[in-house]
Each structure stands twice: as C-alpha cells, then as structure tokens.
C-alpha cells in the first residue's frame, strides 16, 4: 500500500509563520535602509537637492497605483470586448 503525501495543518501553519517572519525581516531591513539613506542625505546637506530632484522626477512619472489602475482598466476593457 502506498503512503499518500499529505500536508498537515501544522505544516501549513509553520509555512505561514515562516513567510510572516521573512516578511517582517524584509520590512525591518527596508526601514533601516530608509533611515540610513535619510541620515546620509542630511549628513551631506543635500536635502534641498534631493527634494528638487524628486519633484522634477515626480512631474513626469505616474505612481505605481495609477499605473496599476490604468492596467486594470485596459485589461478589463479587453475582456469585455472579447465577450
């Protein structure tokens, strides 16, 4: 008789906890990078330059949320056209 390879509830909980731990670690690393970058910019006294650069860059580009909304509108329209 062959044994079935099943996934237990404990295996799923362990995997979710592992993913949660990994995600928390990534968030902590990102926060640390953001903090260090901010301190570096302040140390170099480039806050004004950075603001100017970001405002120029922001003028021409869409945020990821707007790009996502446009993509969803286009894809939903294409699906509606196919029907």
Mean pLDDT: 85
How many strand units? 0
Rg over alpha carbons: 23 Å
Largest β-sheet summary:
none
Instruction: Count up the helices.
Output: 3
Q: How would you classify the helix and strand content by structural class?
A: mainly alpha
Order of helices and strands: HHH
Distance between the termini: 49 Å
Structure description:
- The chain is mainly alpha-helical and 83 residues long.
- The protein is built from 3 helices and no strands.
- It starts with 8 loop residues before the first helix and ends with a helix.
- The model has no long low-confidence stretch (mean pLDDT 85).
Brief overview:
With 83 residues, the protein is mostly helical. Helices cover 82% and strands 0% of the residues. The protein starts with 8 loop residues before the first helix and ends with a helix.
List the helices and strands and how they pair.
Layout lengths: L8 H35 L3 H14 L3 H19 L1
Notable features of this structure?
83 residues; mainly alpha; 3 helices; flat
